[in-house]
Amino acid sequence: MPDLVDSLISNGREERNLEFKQTMNWFDPATKSKVVKSSMAITNLRDGGSIVFGMERQPNDSYVAAGMKQDDYDSFKQDDVSVEVNNYADPFVELVVQKVSRDGKLFVIIQIREFLDFPVICKRDGAERLRNGAIYVRPAGRLKLWSCRAKSICARFWIWR
């Protein structure tokens, strides 16, 4: 498992399919909303991607592997994360929560699989600007939002791209 952490954090910067977060506690509603939105954006990418918790952003926009607080690390559980994400996602987002230790530091990695047949749409409103009918994507740069009210229109758009 340390090889996975090393491969994800080795260059110290985010990629289109890789998002870094500082130590966060799953029981914080803002954390849940951020994970939901990021998971839906990443599942809508070719090959999916990962969210790594325990990375600290530096003034030059690089990241260092700082690790997580023990309580924050302990708060992340597979079933809790999967249920929360899929309370908002349609269709279902496949993800795996992994807990790893590297050099005495704790990290949580959420690996998110690419959608299978149709892009994932947010099916209800929520905190952190989660919007019913929105499709989230993570292009190079910032998180983007495509708003679409009908699943069939979004599916046709995706196929025509």
Structure description:
- With 161 residues, this protein is of the alpha+beta class.
- It has one domain: Schlafen, AAA domain (Methyltransferase, Cobalt-precorrin-4 Transmethylase, Domain 2), CATH 3.30.950.
- It is 31% helix and 27% strand.
- The chain contains 5 helices and 10 strands.
- The strands form 4 sheets. Strands 1-2-7-6 form a 4-stranded mixed β-sheet. It has a two-stranded antiparallel sheet with strand order 3-4.
- A hairpin with a 2-residue loop joins β6 and β7.
- The N and C termini lie far apart (37 Å).
- The model is unreliable at 156-161 (pLDDT under 50).
What's the layout of helices and strands?
Elements (H helix, E strand, L loop, with lengths): L1 H8 L8 E4 L7 H15 L5 E5 L1 E3 L5 E3 L4 H6 L2 H11 E2 L4 E8 L2 E8 L8 E2 L11 E4 L6 E4 L3 H10 L1
Parallel strand pairs: 1-2
Antiparallel strand pairs: 2-7, 3-4, 5-8, 6-7, 9-10
Helix pairs in contact: 2-4
What descriptors fit this protein?
161 residues; alpha+beta; Methyltransferase, Cobalt-precorrin-4 Transmethylase, Domain 2; four-stranded mixed β-sheet; two-stranded antiparallel ribbon; 5 helices; 10 strands; 31% helix; 27% strand; disordered C terminus
